[in-house]
Amino acid sequence: MVNVCSTNSWLKPAIASIELCQMIVQGAWNEDSRLLQLPHFDKERSRGFESEGVDNIFDFLDMEDDIRKGLLNGLSEKEIEDIVNYCNEYPDIEVKTHLPEEVLHIEEDGSIEVELIGSEEDESFNTQVTSSYYPQPLNATWWLILGDSSTNTIYSISEIDLERTNKRVLQFTAPSTPGHYKWSLYFMTDGYIGCDQVQDVEFDVVE
Fold this sequence. Notes:
Layout: H1 2-7, H2 11-26, H3 43-50, H4 57-62, H5 65-71, H6 77-89, E1 94-98, E2 103-105, E3 109-117, E4 142-148, E5 153-160, E6 167-173, E7 179-189, E8 197-206
Parallel strand pairs: 2-8
Antiparallel strand pairs: 1-3, 3-6, 4-5, 4-7, 7-8
């Protein structure tokens, strides 16, 4: 489905397709607490964390140990170990971008350089998805999408195999009308909910 959207340059349907895959793999709705992806979590337990202002995996990891331990009361050591293992596998990736040319001419070819950095720079990426609900092994697919949500248009899209590379150059063509443009760079995966990222990409087009 993402390939169909890419061929037709449809931005919002492409994003929706990836988010649908996330929900299927993790067994949770996109609008639910991200904590429902954790093993042995249900809505009642997640509400306890939400009362502390925690509704995603990154906030869960940043909690005070005593508060987190209290809210996990009732789980066995094995169940807590399952949660720890899931958190260790949850993607924490920094996206660095560089736009070599911030001023382009009409319909000139441009590019944006992207580097993906793990939580530790020398750490290899684990692409195997961890899920309590998906019935078979699955490798996560990642996409970089450069688009404009106001026009629902994809200007560049690339599928990333993080086992092979963490750098990519996205090529695009500048618009045919002069002006200041503010597009978005989306970094998304089909394997997890809540670790997608969006960055602004701004440039000018001149005659």
